Amino acid sequence: MKYKYLTDNELFQRVANDDAAAYEILYNRYWEPLFLYAYKCLRLNAPAKDTVQDVFIGLWKRRGSLELSGSLRSYLFAAVRYEVLKSIAGPELTPLHDTQATMHLSAPADTDDRLHEKELKHLLAAAVERLPYKMRQVYTLSRHQHKTISEIARDLSLSEQTVKNQLSKALARLRTELREATLIPALVPGIIFFFNN
Questions:
Q1: Which of 3, 25, 85, 86 is the most exposed place for a label (fewest CB within 10 A)?
Q2: Can you tell me the distance from the alpha carbon of 6 to that of 26, in angstroms, rounded to the nearest whole number?
Q3: What positions does the domain RNA polymerase sigma factor 70 region 4 type occupy (predicted)?
């Protein structure tokens, strides 16, 4: 049987039964569109690749226990969106674009996924609004206006180290809020396992 003619669900059932060849077909089928989507959000090549790799690694690791509530395609795009959100909120990555600006990009998915994405955007925007004033100001200048650390320091009459500290604290707070928010696992069924990574 030629695997490339199987549907996503048929391939996923084979993957769940430890079929590496079926996994490779799924990987080849979805790697490029998922990478392009991650890249549109992050505007960084290596982190976009890492995001997609992490999603596929997670898929293989949980192949026997993962239950999909919708299509595999929707699941994969939702998983990439979630990983992008984690990357943006995390201190290990400084994306070139504002979190809210990047998250407006919609993967080719169904209406429910677009609603989930809208809720995620709202959750992130609300978390940013809860930041202390100075921290929010630094974050906004960095992410909304794409200013450098030195430019922000000059504009706000702060030392560069203070700006770095404020930005680092802002990202840490956002990451904590997003991890603790019970809304995310409820809004994006099937990707709750990412919280345990």
A1: 3
A2: 10
A3: 123-174
CB 108: neighbour CB atoms within 10 A? Answer: 10
The HSE-up count of residue 118 (CA atoms within 13 Å, CB side) is 7
pTM of this prediction exceeds 0.90: no
Distance CA 19, CA 37 (A): 27
Task: Collapse the DSSP code of 156 into the 3-class scheme (helix H, G, I; strand E, B; otherwise coil) and give the result.
Answer: helix
Please indicate, yes or no, whether residues 84 and 151 belong to a single structural domain of this protein. Answer: no
Two tokens, residue 97: 């674009």
Cα–Cα distances in angstroms (integers) from residue 12 to residues 15, 73, 133, in the given order: 5, 11, 48
Q: Which residue has the tokens 């960084």?
A: 44
CATH number of residue 76's parent domain: 1.10.1740.10
Give dist(CA 68, CA 166) in Å, integer: 40
* pLDDT given at position 185: 41
pLDDT for the residue 90: 53
